[in-house]
Amino acid sequence: MASTLLPFLFLSMVLLPFQTIAQTKSNIAIGESHTAGASTSPWLVSSPSGDFAFGFLPLEDTPDHFMLCIWYAKIQDKTIVWFANRDQPAPKGSKVVLTADDGLVLITAPNGHMLWKTGGLTLRVSSGVLNDTGNFVLQDGHSKTVWESFKDYRDTLLPYQTMEKGHKLSSKLGRNYFNKGRFVLFFQNDGSLVMHSINMPSGYANENYYQSGTIESNTNTSTSAGTQLVFDGTGDMYVLRKNNEKYNLSKGGSRASSTTQFYYLRATLDFDGVFTLYQHPKGSSGSGGWSQVWSHPDNICKDYVASAGSGVCGYNSICSLRDDKRPNCRCPKWYSLVDPNDPNGSCKPDFVQACAVDKLSNRQDLYDFEVLIDTDWPQSDYVLQRPFNEEQCRQSCMEDCMCSVAIFRLGDSCWKKKLPLSNGRVDATLNGAKAFMKVRKDNSSLIVPPIIVNKNNKNTSILVGSVLLGSSAFLNLILVGAICLSTSYVFRYKKKLRSIGRSDTIVETNLRRFTYEELKKATNDFDKVLGKGAFGIVYEGVINMCSDTRVAVKRLNTFLMEDVHKEFKNELNAIGLTHHKNLVRLLGFCETEEKRLLVYEYMSNGTLASLLFNIVEKPSWKLRLQIAIGIARGLLYLHEECSTQIIHCDIKPQNILLDDYYNARISDFGLAKLLNMNQSRTNTAIRGTKGYVALEWFKNMPITAKVDVYSYGVLLLEIVSCRKSVEFEAEDEEKAILAEWAYDCYIEGTLHALVEGDKEALDDMKTFEKLVMIALWCVQEDPSLRPTMRNVTQMLEGVVEVKMPPCPSQFSVQYS
């Protein structure tokens, strides 16, 4: 990834009387500072009228992190109009200080690193002032402007603000994600105002989907070219031409209801690519909310085309226009979002479609068509067949393993399209055209469990049931027999389950007990899958817990009821009484005779595996260090600091989730083993995942918390190298097992080979070498040689010196 994306949502601040706001100061002097999370007011300064405030606002999900910003102070939602540290929130205790040389400087807590500064100043600063237009200005000793927020553009323009040629607005990444998004409003050097999207992380600009046309001609005497974008106090926004004529962006004379005397106004390039003028009534209550005055373009679903990009809504998605002229993105049936946290992102098919696995003889049995009217993906054609009738169009797509959609229109034309589908939209001008979308036939009635083929990639799963639908009669007969046997087993186990008392299943916790109907409604009948595992499927949902809260609901498979009951019991006991910032929080559960469900807080940035093994670009070295320390602290808590010692038994990248700010959260406690505080070891059957399992599992030795230390050591090597622990397909056989190769590199003085091409890691070789040494101590064959997680944490934090590790010895046992 080009940059660490840090999504967030701002808390609504407790409203204070407006006269209190008006009494706060509007100016600050050199040396004055303000601390995030201070018990005093959240702002550093307020405009004289009290309409605007400048200071720190806390984040909703992590109230210990803050954004330095300017906002409308007298309306309930505290609408932000400018923000400094858009890519990284500031921890509680961070402070902003006004300096003479660098202007505003934002310093993080507790390490004192500089997170952001105004910088680039040509004159020394003597004071700062927030005026009634919402512009924060730094001035020198003669009251001359040195820097101003009005010239440091984000996604919003305010009345009395102008934009010169060569400058741009950048949208947010999402409604509550303030990182730079895909859309740009650019006042070009040729005088034309345009809007386009960019392909991240390269920044390649796609075609313009809006342009003012106020362009410089071939001669320098043109009077029609734009010179400045102006937003005046009457609510008008226009491109000022060289001849002082105005190209008005207000369509059809549409403008704000009145001037800034009665309304708050703002023009924002929203995260979905629509540039909109909003107004909000002023008044003692500030009621009424923001309403749209006008927007560009008229229909972004139709007007936007990206020949080298996905479209407004991402690949395989469909864009339709809402009543408020905003795009509504949705996945077709049998498709789901690649990133459930990005509703405007790309969709992936929830089935396997590939020429390698399809046979022409059974394709009719495997596939059917979803018929969509007036829907098209205009940039995804690979063949036109004409003249064709509707049936020929359907049949041609069915027989073509590359065909995902066929569009039949104009009475005789058949356009065949293949994945990925781009620029999807609903378009009434297609006059009833039919899109035949090829999907697998419904296999939800099969009750055999899915077989997951896991290659350290959450997307590589194969559902065997769909293949069996096309198999021989003999195999189907076997399938029916298996179903009957499993049904009989489940029936017998139900009787056994009824005899199990509540005390055998549920620990005494303050967890919320949900009904099955509550969770069914919260997940929209379990329609959005976040992931699948050996014990069940995880779905996204929204539950009202004082406010609407996004959750992940894990529904345990019911095919092997004893294992399900054990998994359910382990998860509740292991995590129900824990609370740590590096553990995924369990919010509640549901238990009926036949169903077991667990409700967790939602983790927006997926698994550590998907971050580390991204083939496009490695995550930053700083982020990897942060994640490694977070996991260590979480394990230390489990082993030594919670009321009951917990051995996780399955530490691996797939079980480390990442929250909105990429903090590591340990998850999936289904294999966890609990120990009493006076107990240090246990004997149990082999648990965990190949490649991460300590060797004592194979030697019938007592199991201690040191098995987690071993797994952490393997994981630490994966974090620093962004390489999987086992790669048998590697060209060099000596590199197949990461821990063994890492030790060889360490002894031979060639550690740089582990991070080849990773400039950030190579520039910090001292830290990198320390982490490899810690990992090698953790993967020692002899458990007594491994450090405790407390020792590991101290070594990571530099409190304890890391000595030269011995050879970890044999690696071959668990890989055979």
From TrEMBL:
Domain Protein kinase: 524-800
Assigned keywords, A-Z: ATP-binding, Disulfide bond, EGF-like domain, Glycoprotein, Kinase, Lectin, Membrane, Nucleotide-binding, Receptor, Serine/threonine-protein kinase, Signal, Transferase, Transmembrane, Transmembrane helix
GO terms for MF: ATP binding; carbohydrate binding; protein kinase activity; protein serine/threonine kinase activity
Membrane topology: Single-pass type I membrane protein
SUPFAM superfamilies noted in UniProt: alpha-D-mannose-specific plant lectins, Protein kinase-like (PK-like)
Residues that coordinate or bind ATP: K554
Bulb-type lectin domain residues: 35-151
Family named by the database record: Belongs to the protein kinase superfamily. Ser/Thr protein kinase family.
PANTHER family: G-TYPE LECTIN S-RECEPTOR-LIKE SERINE/THREONINE-PROTEIN KINASE SD2-5, G-TYPE LECTIN S-RECEPTOR-LIKE SERINE_THREONINE-PROTEIN KINASE RLK1
Protein name per Swiss-Prot or TrEMBL: Receptor-like serine/threonine-protein kinase
Originating species: Glycine max (Soybean)
Classification lineage: Eukaryota, Viridiplantae, Streptophyta, Embryophyta, Tracheophyta
